[in-house]
Amino acid sequence: MPKISVIMPVYNTNKEYLAEAVTSILEQTYSDFELLVIDDGSSVTYSDLMDSWNDQRLKYIKLAKKQGAANARNYGLSHAQGEFIAFLDSDDISLPERFNEQLRFFAENPEIDCLGTAMLIIPENKKWCFPKHDLDIKLHLWLKNSAFCLSSVMVRTKIITGNKLLFQSEYEPAEDYAFWLEISKTSKVANLEEVLVKYRWHGNNISIAQATKQNASATKAKMKFLLQPEEFENPEQYNALANLLEYPNKFSSTQLPALELLLPRIITKILAAGVNEDNLKMVLRKFYTRLIRNAPSKALIRHLCCSPLCELLRVGLHRQIFYYLSKGLF
């Protein structure tokens, strides 16, 4: 059995990009792995390209029809034999030492089950780092957005199989974000500060081409994670919180009662997971201050500044006075 199973879904990827991605895996300094290239019903023919490597570690699987990225990755998960699962998108590049560095970290930190790394955005060659430590990552995941580059992540297989985790197609194109949320419920996570993957930024990236849909899907996953359906007293509360998370710059006074009711519940849930209270409230305080700053009316500014959430989040009185003065409310 290989130590690592690498899952790479492909759908009409540029052949040059795909060749670079596959080569970056086959040329890893750590060699005990299998690479599962899952062709999700592409109209482009890749069989000749796959045969050109003549490497038994490379397994090319062509699905009869397009099933979507989530199901393509799940197909890879169901066929993976490794102790670890690594991911790489078909247009990204793993640096040669990636597997060695990640396996070394796992050996030295057996409590960690999911590990990502920093990335280099190409062709701009811009380094992008994520939070490094477990609770910092979870705080970012739960209240902001993804704290991993999918193409850098390696996970212990037993965590996936033991918890029966799958990528959920209902959250496409943010299915990876929903997957990290599920992992974060039961596992400790980390990110290396070293750049071990190159993330290719181009017009066909899902994060560019489907940004609006991705944001909506991520909000849907976050809502399900933060609060259970029974915690909402009515659909209006759910819609108010969902709209706030997805469109914070469009906050309205009608959403404030729901926020005042639900935010303390969210805080209690996150604190129960072990997140530092000061760090949590610092993140929420910045978010709340932004709501005040972007409020479209004097009435909403007044309501936000007088809300009990100001005291809960320790929004300083000087901030409130500043906004009152700046809007001519005194």
UniProtKB/TrEMBL annotation:
Q: Name one GO molecular function term.
A: undecaprenyl-phosphate 4-deoxy-4-formamido-L-arabinose transferase activity
The EC designation for this entry is 2.4.2.53
Keyword Amino-acid biosynthesis among record annotations: no
Key word Glycosyltransferase present in the record?
yes
Q: Which residues form a coiled coil?
A: none
Q: Where is the Glycosyltransferase 2-like domain?
A: 5-130
Transmembrane region positions?
none
Which UniProt keyword terms apply here?
Glycosyltransferase, Transferase
What family, per the record? Belongs to the glycosyltransferase 2 family.
- List the protein's name: Undecaprenyl-phosphate 4-deoxy-4-formamido-L-arabinose transferase
Q: Which organism is it from?
A: bioreactor metagenome
